[in-house]
UniProtKB/TrEMBL annotation:
This is Pacifastin domain-containing protein. Pfam families: Pacifastin_I. It comes from the Eukaryota. It comes from Macrostomum lignano. Residues 1-21 form the signal peptide. The keyword Acetylation does not apply.
Amino acid sequence: MQLLFLITVGLLCTAVSSSQAEKDEPALRCPDLDPGLVCNATESGFSYNDGCNTVTCNDGGLASTTLLACPEPSSRGERNLCESLSRAVWSRLGPFTCYNIDADSVCTRRGAGFAFSDGCNRVRCLAAGGHARTRMECPVTDPTGPYCRFVALALESEGSEKQQSEEPRAGALEEDEFECPALRHSRICEEFLPGFQYNDGCRNVTCVSDGLARVADSRECPQPEPDNEAAALYCREAQRRFQEKKDRSRFYTTCLDADSLCRGRRTAELAFFDGCNRCFCLPDRSAACTRAACPPMFITPEEFTAHCRRVGAGVLSHRRRK
């Protein structure tokens, strides 16, 4: 009886010890979840865990984070753990264009009927050769960065069971496109959406102002027939992508807040370009700027970041006071 008691106690202690070891498993700082990478690919307010610390992204790619000190992964098991965590976080971001995903190469390997995401669009391999895809436009991101690497990993992990034997139905992808009535620019751009870019199912459209739009090309696409189920599905997908992008878009004017920037400078006089006007900080920490009109833009955070880089917004000179 005493022996049975000792064995039972020993088993209980082992179970408790094992459970405690799982709880005490050290946290890891996953390199692919570095705030500098993640927060430059999303908007302010995005929150995630990098395996060690809780991170909240702020404006301009900056971040607020807890300050726990954790090691980077060293063993294969730890690297696999970080890969799973990183994939879960990066799957919440995007979509972005990944130039490392070559649709023709994928279709050559996988064959007709295989459907996949290239990071931006849905693609289907055709029996006649080549491929068809949706026509969403996405910001370009680093093809060697985490987002595109995880898109490639997800593509490689998609098994043959996801392939579909039948050919895509007419109107499903770009081999038979339609101009979707609900996405006509006369209807969409009637709302004040300056600079907003979207695809109407056939052409890329940019809203200008007062219901006006700029259309990328003049080609014509048919209107969907009422009894064409595939065309209806095509337009529903186009509307879903439109709404998704619209929900993520915000009104932006300048890339830098001149007054806030100058108020924060204690020992330096700063000259900078805010994306619209040239400014410099005065000794009283106020800002003096040229007076060009800065029309608002209704665009996604990624498009805004790309715009600011394109126009060269940033510090022009930095002179310390004597």
